[in-house]
Every structure is written in structure tokens, then in C-alpha cells.
Amino acid sequence: MDYLKTVVPSQLLAERGSNLVVINPGSANVRVGLAKQDSPFSIPHCIARRTDQFSKLNVQDQLLNSQVTTAQHMEREKAYDVIASLLKIPFLDEEVGNTSVPRKMGRVDGYNPQNNRKDGAFTWTDIHVKELKSSVPQESSSDKSVVPESSVQNEGTESKESTLAEQKFREVIFGEEALRISPSEPYSLRRLIRRGHLNISQHYPMQQVLEDLHALWDWILVEKLHIHRQERSLYSAILVVPETFDNREIKEILSVLLGDLCFSSAVVHQEGLAAVFGNGLSTACVVNLGAQVSSVICIEDGVALPNTEKTLPFGGEDISRCLLWTQRHHQTWPQIRTDILTKPIDLLMLNRLKESYCEIKEGELDAVAVVHSYEDAMPAGSHKTRLTALNVPPMGLFYPTLLIPDLYPPPPRSWFHDYEDMLEETWHIEFPRRSDMPDGIYPSTNAGLQMWDNYPFFPMKPKKEEKVGLAEAITSSILSTGRIDLQRKLFCSIQLIGGVALTGGLIPAVEERVLHTIPSNEAIHTVEVLQSRTIPTFVSWKGGAILGVLDFGRDAWVHREDWIRNGIHVGSGRKYKDSYFLQAQAMCYINS
Question: Can you tell me the distance from the alpha carbon of 308 to that of 239, in angstroms, rounded to the nearest whole number?
Fold first, then answer.
């Protein structure tokens, strides 16, 4: 422990983080990097495989409800008007009624804005392999006995062979390149995680999902981290999982890490818990605003409180879809075919527009932006237009009927039926005091148990999605702790993480909406969102790196040989999960 108190954090990460790979999977992106890195690689969590030559791009997992019902449309318009009154902007019908002349729009090819907005167009992915063409001149210079022979035999067909080489398709395409494939190309796009769960359906079976997961992560390890399969026995993996994951999902991913990717050992940590350590805290209400799912969980003294977990079925991509609906309703969107279902590249564009222009503030919020049109295999067209009501879509976090999230039917609940919890049951076990450690680091047995006296134990609690807004979810989560002292502390220690947390004006909006949501009979009058010490998108990944580096005993780690041979058996006495011992160790280091 003396070493921990004197060592420089950067030195500790460099020494112990060089062989630790931290993986934080999400619905839209997977964040992967060595623990010694300042930030991870963030790769879109998708893969495209070549299909029949005469087919077109299809999204294999697109089992969703994309049709808005009349009732949903009415609820959306009602939510818009409620938001409009709060933001002091014209109501939906009022603004449309007063618009006698449509907004001026024009195509501006080659438009070069004089600001720092990301207005550049995406390009279509080159799906062809060109290795044969590039190898011909290399052979002619290095081996003169080969090229003359081929040129004598087929001198007139050299250009034809080069053309055929160019037309050879890439069998598998990963990450953002997979999202930028033209809809006219023969590929099947697969997203590995949807709404916080493995994207398993009748058209995308579990085995195929896991094979694609293995292929994508293997590509990231080789191409980004330069860790080849034969070297991975020297590396260990830290898996930082979302709160939405069920036990079987965690086990299947562990099998991929240890069995297929050949890591020597691995450990599992919860995303919310890792986020707390990533920001150097011990107690907080962690609000994770992801691309497709938002979640809330409370952490006390480095331990996740199980019954405070809330899951909301919407995120940043739903805000992007709402942005498109808003502009089309106000007739500010150019007359182009924008379809995020059949053209994933359009979703990339909408996400960029949302990140650049959407924020929460009072008054009318317009901006001149460049919208791109993507037609099959054609260069992107640029359209300069004035977007309006840009502060409305992010307010859908508080009024989710505005977003109308697409529905992705989950696998049957029987698929997740499991008798062994992969995460530490810290509210149900004893923590012996270590006599060889300094006072204040490890709680006594009684203290450890008293902390959980008021919390019910749910051995296999189903994870339900809440049909409420963000403010209600935060308030409900914190109030469910049942202790006024802890509630006051948590309301003043709200931590926003995830990509949506970067939205301008979100912090004061959360503080105001949560304060108004607290029941009047509760003696709580202050709400505060803490500023993140690192980029909110990567804070859970960073926390996972810290937990891994500070885990000297590694009592909670899974070893490859043990996992392949035995896995986990009920009553075996061996569980692989978060360690309270480790959490106290990390807190001692952070607070020293």
C-alpha cells in the first residue's frame, strides 16, 4: 500500500496497463484499448458480410416497428407542444400555420463552411480488393522470371486481369466502413447489440451473433492494437459491461474472450461502477446516456445498489431520428431521400448534425447547416439549409413520447434463464477484516452487512425497461434507496456519462427537471450534476482500466484454462465478478 500512495498514476498505468486490454461494448460502438492508453479506440459495433452477387445491402437485424401509429403521432405532437411551452418557442401547428413561404434551400456542391462544424460528407466504402493489381509492379521489379512468362502467355489480357482483380469483393467489412456501404451492394449488415442486449432474433441466431462478435473484436485487436492471436496469452481482458446485460450474455462474451480470442484471463465490471472510479468518486448516481439505451444506477462507497437500476429504451440515435422528423415537419429538410433503415450512412450524417447543432436552451434555435444526400454509388450531394427547432429533439430525453423509439423484440426470456449471477452479490455476503491492511480500507463484517439491511435480495430479478422520462427515472432511482442522508448525497452527486452527455445545456436541464420531479413531501431541495473529469463517452472505459491496474490480488479474475475446463458451476464456491476487496483498494488509492 505504501507503493500505491507514492507512485505517480501515469507511471502505475504504464507499468501495469501494458498487457491489460479494456473492452467496453455498447449498442452503437465498442471501446477497446490498452489500460495504459489515455483513451480507447471507438469502433461502430457492426459488421457486413458479402452475400449473393445479385442481392442488395440488407440489414439482417431490422426486426423493428418503424411504422408510427396514429396514437403515437398524436402523443408526439402533444409532447412537442409541452416542450415548446417550456422553451418559449412557437407550438407545432402554430408555426406551421404561420409559414406561408417554405424556407429557401439550395444545392451547394463543394460548400466549404468557415466554421469548425463537421460538415464534410461521408464517402462510400470501397468494397473491392485491389491487392492483385498492386502486386504486379512489385513482382516485375523483384522477380524478372515471373512477369515475362505471364506476359508472353497473355500479354493482351493484362488490363483485363487487373480489372477482374479490382472487382473482387471484400468478404467482410468492419466498423464504420460497414455503415458506409452503398445499398446497391451485395452485403448483409449486422449490428451485434441492440437496445442493450445481444441482437439475437429468429433471423440472427445466437451462434451467428457470437461469430460476428469474435470476428469484429479480433479485427480490432489486430488492426488497431496490433495484438495478434499468438501473442494474446500474454494479455488479460477487462470486460466493462452495460447494466442491461443479463447473466448469460456476460457468460457468452466471456467464452468469446477466453475461448476464441485466447486471452489468458478476464474480469467483469459493471459500466456504472467503472464510471464512478473513472471520475475518482466513491458515491454517485450514474446516468448513462448511450446511443440506444439510457440507464440509471446508484453507487454507494464503491458498491452498486441493485434495486436502484433503471433502464430507459431510448438514446442518442432516437434524438437523431427525432431531428429528422422535426425538420421534415417544418419543411426545412431538402427534397432528398433520407432513410436511416435502408441507408445506414444517413444515420451517420444525422448523428453528426445532432452533435454539431442540437442543444437545450430557451428561445428559437436555428442554424444554417449542410445536409448531404447519398444516392446509390453516386458522390454525396450537398444541400445548404436552415434547420429549425434544434433544441426540441434533445428534450425528448425528458418527454420520451416525442422520440417514439423503434421496437426491437428481445429474445425470449427463457434464453436468459440462468442460476448464477456473474456480478458480485455484495449485499448478500460477508467481508472479513484484513489485519494486514491499514485501518479504514476494509470494513468490518458488521459494517459490511449493515449497509444492506434495508435492501431486498432478488436472486434473478428481471431487467425491465421503464416507460418514463429521464428526470423521473433519476428521481425514482435515488428515492428507492430509502435513506434520507444517502438520498441528499446522491441528488448532489449525479454523474452523466455516454455520448449524449456532451449535449450543450443538458446539465442545467437535468438539474432543473429532477428538482421539479422530487415530491414536495421529500426534504430535498438541492440537485447538482457533477462535471466529468474525463470525456463522458470514455469514462466507463477509463474506470475499467483503473480497476484492472489496481487489482493486485486478482481474486475475481477468470483464467482461460479454468473457464474452458469447468466454466461456472452452482455451489462451486468460485465466482468471477466484481470484488468488494478490489473496490476498497481502488478507493484507498483514489482518496490518498
Answer: 22
